[in-house]
Amino acid sequence: MHELILWCSFLGAWLLVAGPVYQAVLELQEEELEFDRVRGLASAVPAPPPLSRWWWLVPPARLLLSRRRQDVHRRAVVDALSDADHEVLVSYIGKARGWLIVGAGAFLIACKETWELVEGHHWPEAWWWVLVPLMALLSVAWTVGNAVRQDRSAA
Question: Which residues cross the membrane (predicted)?
């Protein structure tokens, strides 16, 4: 029974990674058409000129100046958007951020459950370093595969 619980926890945790990633793709694809319009409007706002490379001689000042320029550009983009377009942008970013948090939490649980599986079988620690990237890759591949299949069936 202990063996079954180890494997169920391991697989269940990785399904908790794949599920939110897939759901994020579905929800963000729904908003993609609206977001493309906003992206087009944002590209019409000219980007600030690049900072001189000489600023890298004083990295903190370079980072501060770069941050300020980005903030000014971001504010100009937001000011150029209509209220409806701004709502689309805020909704898209909010959904993306929310799913990122859910996926990151699931990933951490999956890492812990992978460790429990490795430890429960008394495998070398190296197995954890192999299983985590492998399972993360499988989760992403499953999501991409389903998204591609869904796009093909819609076309």
Answer: 126-148
Give this prediction's pTM: 0.76
Helix ranges restricted to H, the chain: 2-43, 59-80, 83-120, 126-154
pLDDT digits (tens, 9 = 90+) for 107-135: 999 999 999 999 999 999 999 999 999 99
CB 41 within 8 A of CB 80: yes
Residue with tokens 């409007």: 41
At 40, the amino acid letter reads G
- Measure the CA–CA gap between 15 and 149, rounded to whole angstroms: 19
Q: Which domain holds residue 125?
A: 2-154
Please say whether the beta carbons of 110 and 135 come within 8 A. Answer: yes
pLDDT confidence of residue 33: 66
Number of neighbouring beta carbons within 10 Å of residue 132: 17
How far apart (Å, rounded) are the C-alpha atoms in residues 104 and 91?
20
The domain tally of the chain equals 1
End-to-end CA distance of the chain: 46
